[in-house]
Design goal:
This protein has two helices and six strands. The N and C termini lie far apart (73 Å). 14% of the residues lie in helices and 28% in strands. It has a domain of 100 residues: Beta Barrel (Barwin-like endoglucanases), CATH 2.40.40. With 152 residues, the protein is α/β, with parallel strands linked by helices.
Length: 152
């Protein structure tokens, strides 16, 4: 009986209370969907430099072997990545501004300056780990897979 009386009292209070001054929610537009950042990619890196110096890259920028840039097959142009040489653990941050590498079995082609910072100029190749730091603001998300790029 006590529960019935309390329930009726609460219902009465709700019924007699003044209507809320808050109106229906106003939609200001849809919120952007959160995009998953690809997982770490591991694979072989090479470098290029002198033969491409001064030539346009896929992004339209002129290639400069002394800038920290790289070519990647799938990451959007303008993506910032951290590359770590897994042999010596040297790390550098750079921007993807070109497409490549053109040789199967390699995941990224670094500028001369990036390869120098990672310590594999003489070797020419290094096993690296690639972490995405940020995507460009103007990225077309329909073109990005939610899966990490393959190592082909």
């Amino acid at each position: 009986m006590r529960k019935l009386v309390m329930g009726c009292a609460v219902a009465g209070l709700i019924a007699l209370s003044s209507p809320s001054e808050a109106g229906p929610p106003v939609l200001l537009g849809t919120l952007p969907l959160l995009r998953p950042v690809p997982k770490v990619e591991v694979g072989m890196a090479s470098w290029y430099g002198i033969e491409r110096q001064g030539m346009p890259t896929a992004s339209g920028q002129i290639f400069d072997k002394d800038r920290l840039t790289a070519a990647h097959r799938k990451l959007p142009l303008g993506t910032r990545v951290r590359v770590t040489n897994l042999k010596n653990l040297e790390t550098t941050e750079l921007m993807i501004n070109d497409r490549g590498p053109g040789i199967p079995g390699r995941v990224i082609d670094l500028s001369w300056a990036a390869a120098k910072q990672l310590g594999f100029l003489d070797a020419g190749l290094a096993k690296v780990e690639i972490d995405v730091i940020s995507y460009p603001k103007s990225c077309d998300w329909r073109l990005i897979s939610t899966n990490p790029p393959s190592a082909n």
